[in-house]
Automatic annotation (TrEMBL), chains A, B:
InterPro entries: HTH_LacI, LacI/GalR-like_sensor, Lambda_DNA-bd_dom_sf, Peripla_BP_I. SMART domains: HTH_LACI. Keywords: DNA-binding, Repressor, Transcription, Transcription regulation. This is HTH-type transcriptional repressor PurR. Residues 1-55 form the HTH lacI-type domain. It holds the Pfam family Peripla_BP_3. The lineage of its organism: Bacteria, Bacillati, Bacillota, Clostridia, Eubacteriales.
DNA sequence: CTGAAAGCGCTTACAG
DNA sequence: CTGAAAGCGCTTACAG
């Protein structure tokens, strides 16, 4: 069944069938109805390849997930916990707009060519990139060909510097404010010895969270120690190693700010095994608010990153840019939120209770 | 840049360029090299729509995720925990074979038309369906048009009955054996009072797990009680309600077999709030082995469903069928595994320890 | 308002 | 071994 068949059956030309399908206004209601009837009767749907070849959009966007984890790491925990809701949200929002989503995993620099390939083969109209280690040069290249891009978690300054032309939206959360809220909450609980379990420094959020930690402590005249600055790379295992090292080293801080929940969960496990109580002996804070954060005991105090809204924004922006002719680089920061649960408490003897802050 | 440009630059015809791209054997090495050089120099990639229109495959499969949860249920917990690894795995395996994946969410019966549409528009070569409430008639219809399908978690008997013709692979896990192993493990621990928190009965795995529970108890001459047969629908909230009802009713069983981990986690939470200790007062077992299962305290004893292998199988089968001409319906059952952790223990006074079974 | 025709960028018998 | 040509199924100026 092709448009020619529909035309014959409806007693019109292929041109008219096409005009009906594409909602041209200069088709009389009578004709439109006649054609639609035949279309519905035969469940006709135009061949997408033919439409695209004739100049239509693909109505498909590419979602590229750059994964921090190794390809053969079966757990791939970071991705599962953190990205899944994002992927869901992108698909939901795209589908709601009649747009298809082609999802790709990127595990290596070489895989990055997939992005270019998908565009060169004209499989997609636009792209969304999420994950670690974004190869900005490839993206800049594709963007300069005129394809819109939403980029999640990337330095706006670097985008402005590296993307000379193109339609690009950068979607971040306000991790600086989130970090600040968390640290001021801890300081408010009386903590003066606050360690950090940092994330990947080649990641925008990794750097922001770390930099803001340093900044806020400095503002409050609080010093940290080398042994309390742990490098966890956003990965559970690395985090566990670093925490163990700190424990063996001797004196613990009274609070540990972890740059993501995965690492916080890992830290909690190590502490528990070492009979270090949470939050009595040490307060542990996370970042992201992934699903398990509310399930573990003690439930994790963390900073919520609005992944769903970010996904929606990414889709919205990319579709908006698709309809525009001029280049444009836009920056969007969505609000983070402090989520107080049970893994942090007042420093003993500080005379402050957790409750004063949840109210 | 199109194949014509490459042809001109390489001093050959479009036909020859096409033969090089499609690996025809009757191209002399010399010619092939010459053409490839130009292709690489200009980063040429053939327009996919043109190829498809000319008769090539799309090299894209559709992944359709039927979601039990409501569209506007922000948590959509079931899907996140259970399906995410599956989606990941499908994408990994497809990409590894140079195949793209178009991911679609299905929330309503009406959404089911998306499947038909994707095929009619010739966007995909084959489909994989996962999730609850599979509208088998739509699938049968599409399958009868010759498009291969892998269906996850569906009754083989019903497939054989309803799909008269087509290329279909049904991929299940051995939930019957898994259920049996779990129940015999519990019975071995001395439990004679075993309740069940059942799943969705319009789901194949939901029915199998329930039916096998009844069967195994009967085989062991163990009776259950009406008040211990809870209907959780695979959903945390329903599960919590049912468990609460059972608690209020009075006597508890010594063990509760939950038909998925989400419900088990939910049950554990309710018990904890009611000061009922796990596993001392009641043993709780799950099914699936989702990520949080190993993280909660006590860690959940459960049955592992080999989601990753199932995803790989689904991709493999669908690609295999793509290369075949004849119709074929195949049934595949992948092994489940009993995972003993901390949420189940011997009935007090039974004189049996957990250790006797983990060895 | 509507049809005939050109064109989108490939692939593949066909003929040589 | 290789090129000219037909054809895939649409869309859209163009002409009327």
């Amino acid at each position: 069944m092709k448009s020619e068949d529909i035309a014959r059956l409806a007693g019109v030309s292929r041109s008219t069938v096409s005009r009906v399908i594409n909602n041209y206004k200069n088709v009389p209601e009578e004709t439109r109805r006649k054609v639609m009837q035949v279309i519905e009767r035969y469940q006709f749907r135009p061949n997408n390849s033919a439409r695209v070849l004739a100049g239509k959009k693909t109505d498909t966007i590419g979602l590229f997930i750059v994964s921090i984890a190794e390809k053969d790491n079966i757990n791939r925990v970071y991705r599962n916990n953190y990205f899944s809701p994002f992927v869901d949200a992108v698909i939901d929002n795209a589908n709601a707009n009649g747009i298809y989503v082609l999802v790709n995993s990127i595990y290596s620099l070489q895989d990055y060519e997939k992005i270019k390939r998908a565009f060169l083969e004209r499989r997609i109209d636009a792209g969304i990139v999420v994950g670690t280690e974004k190869e900005i040069d490839v993206i800049a290249q594709v963007a300069s060909m005129g394809y819109p891009f939403s980029i999640i978690d990337y330095s706006p300054e670097e985008i402005v510097r590296k993307i000379k032309k193109g339609k690009v939206a950068v979607i971040n959360s306000t991790d600086d404010e989130g970090t600040r809220k968390m640290l001021e909450y801890l300081i408010g609980l009386g903590h003066k010895e606050i360690g950090i379990l940092s994330g990947r420094m080649n990641t925008y959020s990794g750097r922001i969270r770390y930099d803001t930690y340093l900044k806020v402590l400095a503002e409050h005249g609080i010093e940290t120690r080398k042994e309390w600055v742990l490098k966890g790379e956003f990965i559970k295992k690395e985090a566990a190693n670093e925490v163990m090292k700190m424990i063996n080293h001797g004196k613990l801080p009274t609070a540990l700010f972890c740059c993501n929940d995965d690492m916080a969960l890992s830290a909690i496990e190590v502490f528990r095994n070492e009979k270090i109580r949470i939050p009595e002996d040490i307060s542990v804070a996370g970042f992201d608010d992934i699903m398990p954060a509310s399930l573990v005991k003690p439930a994790l105090t963390t900073v919520r990153v609005p992944l769903y809204s970010m996904a929606r924004k990414a889709v919205e922006e990319v579709l908006k840019m698709l309809g525009e002719t001029s280049d444009n680089i836009s920056i969007h920061s969505l609000e983070t939120e402090l989520i107080v649960r049970d893994s942090c408490t007042a420093v003993s003897g500080a005379g402050i209770t957790n409750d004063s802050f949840t109210a």
